[in-house]
Specification:
Blueprint lengths: L16 H5 L14 E4 L3 E6 L2 E8 L7 E4 L7 E6 L4 E6 L4 E8 L3 E8 L19 H18 L9 H13 L7 H15 L5 E2 L1 H9 L4 E2 L2 E6 L2 E7 L9 E5 L2 E2 H9 L10 H8 L3 H10 L4 E7 L5 E7 L1 E2 L17 E7 L2 E6 L4 H6 L4 H14 L4 E5 L8 H9 L6 E2 L1 E5 L15 E2 L9 E6 L6 H12 L3 E4 L8 E11 L6 E11 L15 E2 L4 H5 L4 H11 L4
Parallel strand pairs: 1-7, 4-8, 19-20, 20-24, 24-25, 25-28
Antiparallel strand pairs: 2-3, 2-5, 5-6, 7-8, 9-27, 10-17, 11-12, 12-13, 13-14, 13-15, 15-16, 18-19, 21-23, 22-27, 26-27
Helix pairs in contact: 2-3, 3-4, 11-12
Length: about 550
Amino acid sequence: MKSIESSPYWVRGIIVYFLLFNLPVTCIFAQHNLPVIKATATNVKIKDGYVIREGIWNLSPEVKPDVYYVLRPNSKHNVTFYTDIDSIFFSVLPGNDYEFIVLLNGKDSCFTRISAVGAGSIRDVGQGTEALISPEMLAMDFVVFRDYLQSEHPGLYRYKSRERLQAVFDSCLLSITRPQTRLEFARKILFAISEIQDGHTGSNISSLLIKSYLESTKLFPLYLYFVNDKAFISCNNTDGLPVGTEILSIDNKPILEVRAQLFSYLPSDGSIETKKNQTLNNNGAFPFLYRWIFGFADSFSVNYKSTAGDIKTIQVPARLASDFECEINAGRKSEQMLSLEYPKRGVGLLTIKTFDRNRLGGADQYFEKFLVKSFLELNEKNVENLIIDLRDNAGGQDEYGAQLYSYLTSKPFRYYASVESTGKVYTKEENSLLGTLQPQAYNFRGKVFILINGLSFSTTAEFCAITKSNLKATFIGEETGGGYNGNTSGQTMKIELPNSHVQVIIPRFKYVNQVKASSFTDRGVIPDHKVIPDVLEYVNGMDVALQYTFDLIDGSKK
């Protein structure tokens, strides 16, 4: 069954007045000496502080009064109502109401109140994740979330049209019909973020989940590893199922349907699934996400394939997350974030775990100095094959990707085709990565092999895209988690929704990479050789992608 968040779009210009503002009248509306504005259409736009709200208010003469609750009742700010032909402005102070009349078509008086008194009896939030919040307050939160995205996110429509995303937002808003806890409401927020298809748009929901579930909530007791459209046990907190067992279904839900539904709540660039898959595979995320999306159960019916190939079913009890005992040997545990090694004759292995200046500085490592030293050394040693390991590198400074590429090319190059925010298009004078960049004098001239996976993201994906477009480098592993054509990232703004206190992170700059056209527009860098460990290789920390690269260099793989 589809979740209501994914139900098809069926109405434009939705009226959420019923959800937001259909509140009991507790006093008689004073009609004397009120300011009057005019309208010939029922649609009204509201500017509440610096949030512009469209499609949430319609004039209703029969409602007396029609009450609009400001988004920030505890702070002074400006509120303006715009009809199709007129407007009215109030400087709103906490604890006050502001009343006026909208004369519709010269005959119908719409008595309107702007209230900064606070939500009073309809607000029931608390700070706990189990407190119920009224649908009126949740609908208001969702409108705030939507309006901030539409006004502040420069890449909102990179992958989906305005009409398609509006349909998603409308469907989510219409589905808010009952009181919910913060974590229940958070599903709608994360579903909408996932639909945007922007991996840099984030939230504090994962930390809320961990905080809520870690101490007192029983969870599905198995860590799962998804690979090649199958799921295997990577760590077992129950008896009877060894690591490596293939899981076919949970509570009669086929495992690929389970994965697909969880994917619909995980953000990523475009249609890329490798980053979502890595999220499910790493750090025991699956039990937490499964509980959040599918609900509580004391036990689970697990259908599996035994090592002998028999199909069997077992009932496994839920367990507290604090009782889990899972340690997976992830391999590649070098403490150095930047390192250059020589694992084989004529082969250099350059490992870059992050492009984040602060993380590197905290480890007393400095990117520019490291590159100078490393590439001088590679040239002095006449290294013929260079492996650059960028797996799990989530990105960092924009310029670090361009600097790394400048050591691999002998030609001038461009890095970004464009950079823009919602209010400005930047020039090469303002961002040097928009101009023509020069190669380093002692660039590497040998063969280049680049290791990537679904956690190769942001700056890392940009570097990979430029290298894929311009060089004959060989990529090994799995598709990058960041888009080939660019991303929306850079500086971010954080908003906290006023009633649920869910936080949302919105990136401020839309980047377009200077790359050759590809046959797809919504994918990452696709490896030349797809190499992903199976479940036993994974749990034993075997680096199959690196070994595959050695075999390519030796000529035993082609």
